[in-house]
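1st attempt posting a full record on here, be nice pls
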Amino acid sequence: MDPVIGLDIAKGESQLQAFLQKKNPYKKSFKFTHDVLGLHEFHRFYQEVEQASGQPPVVIFESTGHYHEPVLQFLEEQKITDYLINPVISHEVKKTNLRKVKTDVIDAFHLGELYYKEDDLEAFQKKSIRTMNLRNLSRQHDSLTGTYVQNKLQFQTILDQVFPEYKRVFGALYSPTSLITLRRYPTSKDVRDEKVEDIAQVIRQGGAKRSQSWCLEKAHKLKEAAKRDPFKCNLYRSHTVSLNMYIQMLLQYQEHLSNLEEEIDALAEEFEEYRLIQSIPGIGGKIAATIISEIGEIDQFNHPKKLVAYAGIDPSVHESGKFKATINTITKRGSSRLRQILYTAVQCGLTKNRNPKLKEFYEKKREEGKPHKVAIIACANKLIHWIYALLKRKEVFKV
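the predicted structure (as tokens):
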């Protein structure tokens, strides 16, 4: 016998369907919760299936973001073999049924059937705790950066309605010195009512690591900006309230991002791969840390093409009869974060000719008539082959 248990995982609970062997379901499907009692109920049933079949069953389920984490941790504690399936794969299998029916019971049943249909399934290998910590921090940094950018746009919208000429005072509008100064003088009237020396003192206290003369120069510029500003007085107090709120938020985001960057750098330094990947011109610390966290242990890939597929930059194939498509898009079925960071790494490598080998490869593709985006994807493919070779051989990149 070849027993399997299919789990359709949802938030806080899972639907279960067991099979003793192909086309031989065991008992009725049921649900269990993702708490201590529910997981022990699942384990008792697991032991029952093991006794009925004469061998330990494997468990198969879809990746569901973070909902499957309690189940996955429990399976690892009990040393139960499990298969974590990409939802794209299971979705394709479900479409083979002519009837368009979707319930938790049927989904659990289909996952059990999938185990017998797919010959190349590989048991899940969880990334190390160190790698997962790096991945979580990197993804949190990306998420926070996205929110930070949105807040900057909203901040500018409010600033345009309160004190638009302020943008010309500081070269770095979002520097702590600039934001703290604006918090003290949110309108042109506030600036006009203040002496230049007092404004310079506020700028200096705002953290400016410059001379007193520089602070005085900025204070004079702020005075001039106040004279040019079209809003001689602020009619809407709501605008200044919103402006102050966004300033506080931007300062907090900067602090949080700085703390995350320090944590990421410290953790990434523990990886030998961090130094190896950074040896490729154009790849800095943040990009290298993200690549490491998304790839994990390189030993789980026995061929560079598997790593390319994991990144989702392998070309799709469309053939039917005598027809063979000449324009094929990439599959985009792997790690979207790895795909994005590879694209960024290519752009950095091509900028200012930082990576001559990559630049030469790009120019070659362009001479072959490839469009810019196609050439960039080809470069990403080449880059991931280099990364695979470096990590496997534990060698630095040779220009």
